[in-house]
Design brief:
Mean pLDDT: 86
CATH superfamily of the largest domain: P-loop containing nucleotide triphosphate hydrolases
CATH architecture of the largest domain: 3-Layer(aba) Sandwich
Largest sheet: 5 strands, parallel
CATH class of the largest domain: Alpha Beta
Helix content: 40-55%
Distance between the termini: 19 Å
Shape: elongated
Strand content: 5-15%
Radius of gyration: 30 Å
Number of helices: 19
Structural class: alpha/beta
Low-confidence stretches: none
Strand order of the largest sheet: 2-1-3-4-5
Length: about 450
């Protein structure tokens, strides 16, 4: 598709020269000699880029007309790139407009090569943005269809990686099988377990949680299976365990890698027979419980060092749901940030600045969703006005080391090959990413 460029300049010779220059690169050119004519053309014709003069009245060199025209274009077409043609007498005005969002400024008389480089880069970036918008529109439609078909427990997401995981989770939920959810701390594993429960045959049953890493090893068995009075020091009366409490529903065992070996043996037997006995009792009880386990640990490594039973691993891992870290699902970051901001009383009515939004996307989020929630809560409390600036987020300075081949290939895969999006994820310019790809021998695809 041939790109179209609009030249707004009161000098016909300038418009003609630019039209000839752009035609050599197969770029169609529209011409307007006044701001009003240019704005009218923008309403009638699809335009990919505007090149505008800064003065239109005779003997005027202030640049005020150019500033007003740029403001009107930006108000009506906020994503349309604009290049300013400027003389030295109003260079400062052009620099101010670039800070306000203009794509670039070119001095008169212009250098053909410099102008064409700027135009080519902006048209390529515009094409990438259009492709990204199309891709995000299709993704949003898939997300909405998933929400309409399943109970997602209000989970906030936009990224394709999360959508794929949720689709599998809802599909698996219908089968009465054990599920293992893996992923780093703070990534939202319990929410995935709740979604599996909500779309299962036992959705109306209880959802009971046990954090296997939060209790001393000598108490975990009592928590799981219950205990009769006198079963251990301090057990003054009989107590119900988590399995009994979860009967007819779901038992979520978080951080299962921390379960002691003795507890692993008993858990395996319950999973195989659906029967167990309380501590201190010989009477077996029968339950119908779906077990969902979660861990951030490498269970294969723990099997190798003898701290996790291999037979239990295969029993709980019939289906594995891997929840990626937040950094690997970057399109979830801003929707989650907005959700946390709107849900925090002190933060209601506040908005994230463009710089804050960019900082949130660039940050690697080692603490995942939990860290993001805390950052937004703190920033909403500390921001002085209605807008949260990047400084209010108080994020650690990012590591500016150049990304390696694996990091670039992963970013390209997440961005569906869109260079501009991959560069944003990596915290670098598109040109820098191109140069890095060339040095590493990575094809542009």
């Amino acid at each position: 598709m041939t790109p179209t460029l609009l030249v707004i300049d009161d000098n016909p010779a300038v418009a003609t020269a630019l039209e000839v220059l752009f035609s050599l690169r197969d770029i169609a050119t529209l011409r307007a000699t006044s701001p009003d004519e240019g704005l009218a053309l923008l309403e009638r014709e699809p335009v990919d880029l505007v090149v505008q003069d800064m003065n239109f009245s005779a003997d005027t060199t202030s640049g005020d007309e150019g500033r007003e025209l740029f403001a009107r274009i930006r108000a009506r077409h906020p994503d349309l790139p604009v290049i300013l043609l400027t003389a030295w007498t109003h260079l400062e005005s052009a620099v101010d407009l670039v800070r306000a969002g203009a794509a670039d400024y070119i001095g008169k008389p212009w250098d053909d090569r410099k102008l064409m480089t700027a135009v080519a880069n902006l048209l390529e970036l515009g094409a990438s943005r259009r492709e990204l918008r199309r891709h995000r529109g299709e993704q949003a439609q898939r997300n909405d269809e998933l929400r309409a078909q399943h109970d997602l427990r209000g989970m906030v997401f936009a990224d394709a990686a999360t959508e794929r995981l949720l689709g599998i989770a809802c599909q698996v939920a219908r089968a009465d099988v054990s599920v293992l959810i893996t992923g780093p701390n703070g990534s939202g594993k319990e929410r995935i377990a709740q979604i599996v429960q909500a779309n299962s045959a036992v959705k109306d049953g209880p959802f009971v949680t046990l954090d296997c890493g939060a209790l001393p090893s000598e108490l975990i068995e009592a928590e799981l299976f219950g205990a009769d009075a006198g079963a251990y020091t301090g057990a003054n009366k009989s107590r119900e365990g988590k399995f009994e409490a979860a009967d007819g529903g779901t038992l979520f065992l978080d951080e299962i890698a921390n379960l002691p070996l003795a507890g692993q043996v008993k858990l395996l037997r319950v999973l195989e027979t659906s029967r167990f006995a309380r501590l201190g009792s010989n009477r077996e009880r029968s339950v119908r419980v779906r077990v969902i386990s979660a861990t951030n640990a490498d269970l294969q490594a723990k099997i190798a060092d003898g701290t996790f039973r291999e037979d239990l691993y295969y029993r709980i891992n019939l289906i594995e749901l891997r929840l990626p870290p937040l950094a690997e699902r970057p399109d979830d970051i801003l929707p989650l940030a907005e959700h946390f901001l709107s849900g925090h009383d002190q933060g209601s009515g506040k908005a994230l600045s463009r710089e804050a939004r960019e900082a949130l996307r660039r940050y690697p989020w080692p603490g995942n969703v939990r860290e993001l929630k805390n950052v937004i809560r703190r920033a909403s409390l500390l921001a002085a006005g209605d807008t949260i600036a990047a400084a209010d987020l108080d994020l650690p300075i990012a590591n500016h080391a150049e990304p390696d081949r694996m990091q670039i290939e992963q970013a390209l895969a997440r961005a569906q090959g869109v260079i501009a999006q991959a560069a944003a994820q990596l915290g670098m310019s598109r040109q820098s990413l191109y140069r890095r790809m060339e040095r590493l021998g990575i094809a542009r695809g």
